[in-house]
Amino acid sequence: MRKKQYLVKLKPEERKQLKEVITKGKSPAYQICHAHILLLADIEVSNWADEAIARALSVSINTVGRIRRLYDRQGLKVAVERKKQDYPSHPPKFDGAGEARLIALSCSQPPDGHSHWTLRLLADKAVELEIVDSVVPETVRQTLKKTNLSLTSGKCG
Predict the structure, then answer these.
(1) What is the DSSP letter of 147?
(2) Distances from the Cα of 127 to the Cαs of 74, 111, 155, in angstroms?
(3) How many angstroms from the chain centroid is the CA of residue 71?
(4) How is 104-126 classified by DSSP, letter by letter?
(5) pLDDT tops 80 at residue 138
(6) DSSP designation for 135
């Protein structure tokens, strides 16, 4: 039994969009690759076979078939871009209230024996105060970075 061959017949404006993705060089590599696949598979211009496209772009034949299928069934945008996750791989450690408590903590007086808060001290104190059950200093850094809060500048908020 043969697999169904999905035909790619690009409209002129779609072809122009894909060429922009390729020539600008600002798009992620997978988008540029998907644009190349669609341009090479277009029956109006080049109509390359899946095997030839896969060999030329160093991708799997299954990738070429998947991009063709996505274009045929769901259109250009779905074929070129990745689907966003429905649910993140892991929920964020700090919710809004936890973030606010962390910021307030970082603006408070540091523990005795320390001149300022460090990321490790903040992480340990956040666990001790049961803001979160566990956290690493890098997560504290990323959370504080979102708020443009510097532990060394001396000003908070």
Answers:
(1) T
(2) 46, 15, 24
(3) 21
(4) HHHHSPPPTT-SS--HHHHHHHH
(5) yes
(6) -
Residues β-bridged to residue 8? 42
How many angstroms separate the CA atoms of 42 and 76, rounded? 12
pLDDT digits (tens, 9 = 90+) for 69-124: 999 999 999 999 988 878 878 888 999 999 999 999 999 999 999 999 999 999 99
Six-digit token pair at 13? 């404006």
CA angle 146, 150, 151 (to 5 degrees): 125
List the beta bridge partners of residue 42. Answer: 8
**What dihedral do alpha carbons 82, 84, 86, 92 form, nearest 10°?**
130
Number of residues assigned to the chain? 157
Q: Which residue, among 70, 32, 64, has the nearest Cα to 48 in the 3D structure?
A: 64
**Region for residue 142 given its phi and psi (left: phi exceeds 0; alpha: psi -120 to 50; beta: otherwise):** alpha
Would you say the pTM of this structure is higher than 0.70? no
Rounded distance, CA 4 to CA 68, Å?
A: 11
Task: Label residues 107-126 b or e (16+ Cβ within 10 Å = b).
Answer: eeebeeeeeebebebbbebb
